[in-house]
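thread: overnight batch results

M.L. [08:02]
morning all. the overnight job finished for the chain we discussed friday. pasting input first so we're all looking at the same thing
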Amino acid sequence: MASKIDTVLARDKLAPRHDPYWLRVNTGCYVGFRKMTAESEGNWWARARDTTTGKKPTKGLGQFAELPSHQRFSAAFKAAQEWFEHLGKGGSSSASTVRQVCSNYVAHLKQKSESASKDAKARFDNHVLNTKLADLDVAKLTPAHLEAWRKALRATPTRSGGNRGKPRSDSTLNRDMTPFRAALNLAYLDGLVTSDFAWRSKLRPIGNADRRRELYLDREQRRKLIDAAAPDLAVFLRGLSLLPLRPGALAGLKAGDYDSRLKVLKIGKDKQGQDRKLKLPDATAEPFTDAAKGKLPGAPLLSREGGQAWNKDSWKWPIKAAVGAAKLPDGTTAYTLRHSVISDLVHDGLDLLTVAQISGTSVAMIERHYGHLRGNVASGALARLAL
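M.L. [08:03]
and the structure it wrote out:
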């Protein structure tokens, strides 16, 4: 028998029991409410009838405890309708756990970028899959679950860098949250879950966390850093000082990616997930031509002394030592060189689209972090209009 569950008063009168009280909303479709004890908030359910198999799959919708009591039926009704539509389009009625959607996202990223896929997997392993959320049905996630996860992540000490052992900064927290939010959003887009309500606000990035990077090395400081570095590291740092590449993208180059005859460098898939080719001027091409000599196509283009490829673990401390020897500002990293090179390109008047293309990023990112440098370019252009 159908029950009245759409008002707070009606739900308060219901006797606690294991089976939900069901209210028919359409042919074969029901919204249910179940409370196991008189004191519980109660849980909302949806039930549908599969006309081809006769089965009646059910789906837990959650408590909606973050909403006032009088708004919970409407929220449950909306979530149930989304699930009914999902089933009507051939969607699965099976539950998907947080662990499964994280795995799905890693596989999704791998089709675009191997490095991005590995980065996301590492963050999931370190911050998601070792928590109680891992085996929870995504449909049962609540804002409270994700708020608690976010607070715990914020308090988890960092493992590396100058802030090692300290709580995460806003920018670090954003980077750690982003893959998880993206995995949940993918599950939502794929129809594995009918609502993104649980994480829509709780995993929202912190605004202005990635403020303009203030640490900039001028050309003379970059020369000092290169001179203070060991020979193999000096070659790598020179590459970072000549091209606005991410350190990981430069380290991933193979000898076969550089055409010495045409002076063309092919940058493989990095964070943006696309290959791109750069035609290098003679002065820029020289160190890459030297580095490629005598190497097999599959060998690292810019290698360490023993022939191994560079990575963030192998360059971090040698760069720190070179920074100290050159008496450069604390906090100077490999990425500081990328920032400095992009800053020079923008300041010297190169259009932002070209800067974005050769840097392997978006125009929006360049505008956000470097657009303020265009002021001098604009000022100079205006001055030339004077009569």
